[in-house]
Amino acid sequence: MASTKTGAQGGRRRPTVADVAREAGVSVATAGRALGDYGRVGDALRDQVRAAAARLDYSPNGVARSMRSGGTRTIGFVGVDISNPYFATAMRGICDVARKEGYEAILANSDDRLDIERAAVKVLLEKQIEGIVVAPNAVIDVGHLQRAQELGVPVVLLDRHSGVLDADSVVIDNEAAAREAVSHLLRLGHRRIGMLLCVDPSESPELLRRAGTGRLEVHGAARPSIDRIRGYVAAMDQYGAPTAAELIRYTVVGEAAHLEREAEALLDLPEPPTAVFAADNVATQGLFTAVRGRGLGIPDDISMVGFDDLDWTTLVDPPLTVVAQSPMDMGRIAAERLFARIKGDDSPGERIILPTELIVRSSAAGRDAVHTV
């Protein structure tokens, strides 16, 4: 039964697409498509949504009315940094699926800035795309993505999962991947292990705090960089290795030039690490460059494990041990989920976790054996 909605001033507020979706028992995206005659919705489901809208006395706004029936056979992709090989490869996977479906993909680059992401989504909606794959800059502040769903445009998240958005997401287990990489170094006997990575601009610089127990704690919402730090700390704790904030060096995404400086700060510590985990592909290159710039040998002077199995990691001497993920598969699966939604799949959003693999090469050498506690 329809319920009465009241606003802050005591009057009945205008029903939203989300209200209609709850009344009809469907997703917000499906309700938006049914109300706007946009995309693919079965006749029975459309009638169900329209009946719910009538019970709530819902009327669409001007933007919703402008969405055309039949669609434009285009989808959008909003990436964080298309110059990063991860997002460039993911885009290829998305485009391959789109082309098979008879669609074209429009690309937008957010530069890891939420304001640019919002503007990009707005432009894509104005171009009447039929769905969006987005690597979100924020996992809580996602009102612009919820708005897209209300207009009947499905949204699929890539690389990050949002607990407040009912949408499919395609991710890896970043914490487990980092834990495996650091555990590899610990099994080789290293105890003083550094970490180098990029973090998102929205993340607090105070990511690390020492708990009363002496354990290093990581603070922040789940996202790749934070979860990889958590994996590092978990592995160090498991093996009884000491953790210290000075061993975890990071800079903001988009300031890659600063990574070499942070890597050099690790090397300049009074007691420098014997091994370093570079937790993303930008950090991997920055660490390798800094170590070689000092004339140090890998792994003779310092061991390292990197992230992402890019071509260059096999061409250097020594070839690098890395955590490998498959951005091509991630982009492909994200696009497949998007087209399932465009075709009317109304099931709850699913978190799809793809596997990673630690590829052991020659950049990490053994130290005295370390035993877990």
From TrEMBL:
<dbReference type="Pfam" id="PF00356">
    <property type="entry name" value="LacI"/>
</dbReference>
<dbReference type="GO" id="GO:0000976">
    <property type="term" value="F:transcription cis-regulatory region binding"/>
</dbReference>
<dbReference type="Pfam" id="PF13377">
    <property type="entry name" value="Peripla_BP_3"/>
</dbReference>
<dbReference type="InterPro" id="IPR000843">
    <property type="entry name" value="HTH_LacI"/>
</dbReference>
<dbReference type="InterPro" id="IPR028082">
    <property type="entry name" value="Peripla_BP_I"/>
</dbReference>
<dbReference type="GO" id="GO:0003700">
    <property type="term" value="F:DNA-binding transcription factor activity"/>
</dbReference>
<dbReference type="InterPro" id="IPR046335">
    <property type="entry name" value="LacI/GalR-like_sensor"/>
</dbReference>
<keyword id="KW-0678">Repressor</keyword>
<protein>
    <submittedName>
        <fullName>Putative LacI-family transcriptional regulator</fullName>
    </submittedName>
</protein>
<dbReference type="InterPro" id="IPR010982">
    <property type="entry name" value="Lambda_DNA-bd_dom_sf"/>
</dbReference>
<keyword id="KW-0238">DNA-binding</keyword>
<keyword id="KW-0805">Transcription regulation</keyword>
<keyword id="KW-0804">Transcription</keyword>
<feature type="domain" description="HTH lacI-type">
    <location>
        <begin position="15"/>
        <end position="69"/>
    </location>
</feature>
